[in-house]
Write a structure and sequence with these properties.
Blueprint: H1 3-22, H2 28-41, H3 49-86
Amino acid sequence: MGVSTMIKMLCEAVVAGVILLAGCGPTAEEQHAADQQQCSDFGYQAGTDAFANCMMKLDSKREAQAAADRRAQQAEQAAKDKAAQDG
């Protein structure tokens, strides 16, 4: 087994591990409850426009962070793939 094959296998194992860990976060219901608590802690009252805006902002931040994390993982994988090809 060549070095490039071993590197490729290692990269695939790392990606698989990241995918498995991504599933370890809170459920949608747990996240919703945490967001509600956070907005309440900020002083917003449930049922108000301000509370709804708080909930939307928390969700948008989480989605933006997830997208940034995916881009970083893709860039890292592309760099590893290139190194394996050049190696």
